[in-house]
Write a structure and sequence with these properties.
three-stranded mixed β-sheet; single chain; alpha/beta
């Protein structure tokens, strides 16, 4: 997954740099998981989970897990089945996920509707956030998404302009009618 919009299949526009609070590392691992809600449950929602990079010892080797953001979509059975069918039939070139009012996303104020830099405060206490004494504000952490959208795009190859001036379209249909009459 990539941040931004790629409308021509080549260039990324409106690319936003995501990083965890307390780091200068750009987050490169974004994951999307889509779940099907139980039958009759149409309360679709989206949640985010994040993890700050850490290193562990695994069989005497240090293994580092990079900063990660997981996007979880919970969709109605009808929408889930529709998306599954499109994917199964290989009719997907691009999937766009749009998120708004994301708890735990922070950026500098701008009169623009977009930003080029977002800092993320995850739900766990891994980022050692220290609030001043008598602070009445509990900073929102990663989790709830106020609004989301999912768009599936299939790019169709257009054929170049063809010169059809020498073809008599009406004559082609007449020949077909004659063949049908003979059978």
């Amino acid at each position: 997954m990539h941040s931004g919009i790629c409308s021509d299949g080549q260039r990324l526009q409106d690319d936003t740099a995501f990083s965890m609070f307390g780091t200068g590392r750009y987050i490169r691992n974004f994951w999307l998981t889509i779940y099907k809600l139980e039958e009759g449950d149409n309360d679709e929602c989206c949640n985010l989970w994040g993890c700050v990079s850490y290193t562990t010892d695994c069989d005497f080797h240090d293994v580092t897990t990079d900063d990660t953001i997981n996007i979880y979509l919970y969709l109605s059975q009808k929408r889930f089945n529709s998306i599954a069918e499109v994917i199964k039939n290989q009719r997907v070139d691009v999937v766009q996920v749009r998120l708004k009012r994301v708890s735990g996303f922070y950026s500098d104020w701008s009169p623009s509707i977009s930003t080029n830099s977002v800092k993320i405060l995850v739900a766990a206490d891994d980022q050692n956030l220290v609030c001043p004494e008598n602070c009445d504000i509990v900073p929102p952490r990663l989790g709830a998404v106020g609004e989301f959208g999912l768009t599936i795009i299939q790019r169709c190859q257009l054929n170049p302009k063809q010169d059809l001036r020498s073809i008599n379209i009406y004559k082609l249909f007449e020949e077909q009618d004659e063949i049908d009459a003979d059978t």
